[in-house]
Specification:
42% of the residues lie in helices and 17% in strands. By secondary structure, the protein is an alpha/beta fold. The protein has one domain (10-151): Collagenase (Catalytic Domain), CATH 3.40.390. It has a 4-stranded mixed sheet with strand order 1-2-4-3. Strand 1 (10-15), helix 1 and strand 2 form a beta-alpha-beta unit.
């Protein structure tokens, strides 16, 4: 329980692929840090997938026929509403492509775990309503990502060679 009496963020992980992914506890810590108090009593589902599934979902929901690192699917407005005490309210789902994350980390010369942390934070912020469509929104989201990652001991992911 948190100070407010609400249960902490709940994060469930399912795997559609055998590729390496960080432990559920690490992903939960990253997402909870991104959300702060807004994460109390909330639930996030994470699915770790192969490029084929990522590509299919990216094409279906974003019209982009290629795999991507992370997709965020916020819960429907009704799902986030009031529910009985002790039950987590759905914040949404993240779909993370392990192979893309690994390839990007290598290409960007970043530690794999740090890149995973960045993408979990990034996706979680999308679930919380952040976006990067407009430049001002992108700058706001990046500032939040950098601050969250700093709290986690992870360097700024937007600087080259980090």
């Amino acid at each position: 329980m948190t100070r407010s009496g609400a249960s902490p963020l709940r994060l469930d992980v399912t795997r559609g692929v055998r590729a390496w992914a960080p432990p559920q506890a690490a992903m939960t810590r990253w997402a909870a840090t991104a959300l702060g108090r807004r994460g109390a009593g909330r639930e996030v589902a994470v699915r770790v997938v192969a490029p084929r599934e990522s590509r299919r979902l990216n094409a279906l929901w974003r019209g982009k026929d290629k795999p991507t690192n992370v997709l965020a699917f916020p819960a429907a407005a009704g799902a986030a509403g009031r529910v009985r005490r002790g039950t987590a309210r759905a914040l949404g789902d993240l779909v993370i492509c392990a192979a893309i994350v690994r390839a990007e980390a290598r290409e960007q010369r970043k530690p794999l775990t740090a890149h995973w942390a960045h993408l979990v934070v990034h996706g979680t912020l999308h679930l919380a309503g952040y976006d990067h469509v407009r430049d001002a929104d992108a700058a706001r989201m990046e500032r939040r990502e950098i601050a969250v990652l700093r709290r986690l001991g992870i360097p700024n992911p937007y600087l080259s060679g980090t």
